[in-house]
Amino acid sequence: MLESPTISTVCSRSPEALLSFTTSTATSVLPCTGKKDNTSKRKSMQRLSSMSTVHARPLPPLTTFIANLFQRSQLPPSVCLVSLIYLQRIKRALSPLARGDHDTPYRLFIAAIVAASKFMLEPRQALTSQDVAGMIDHVYTPKEINSMERSFLGLIKFDLFVDIHAIKDYLAMHGTLLEMDLVEQQVAAFDEQHQQQHAPLPVELL
């Protein structure tokens, strides 16, 4: 007898908790300068030159920046969660000597959320560089956003796959602070074609 397929849904109980945790995660990936100060660079330290450039346009506080993108994009919680897993992966991939600039947390967040949307959503729903540029009031151009994403993917060696076990592991560690839950439900009815073929339906992460 076939087992009923399972549908897994990530639920956020507190947008404020998600915002706070995302901001903290983006700023904790690596040490960064607090302001634009090229004199503070040390040749002995590895810097994320491809992720950070001299930025002349004013940036809002990181919390405001992330909140605006969350509000304007209306991404499902699962995409936000996967972006946090990507930030965890890049933190592990970086050298202990890596240093960032004042806007590196902004760039890391953008790259992670764009990559997560492309992994989790249908192509027509995923964020594009043009979409993001508009949502962040064009403080970065689409060309810059594309460059951020390419650099980010290179640093994590295109390790984008996230399965249900990775979701469960991350929530086991951080779910309380995030105020997120994974709700799993068995689907009672099978598609007739799958019943005839005796093939279980795939697990979906919504």
From TrEMBL:
CDD domains per the UniProt record, alphabetical: CYCLIN_ScPCL1-like
InterPro entries: Cyclin-like_sf (IPR036915), Cyclin_N (IPR006671), Cyclin_PHO80-like (IPR013922)
GO molecular function, one term: protein kinase binding
Domain Cyclin N-terminal: 41-160
Cellular-component GO terms for this entry: cyclin-dependent protein kinase holoenzyme complex; nucleus
Name assigned to this protein: Cyclin N-terminal domain-containing protein
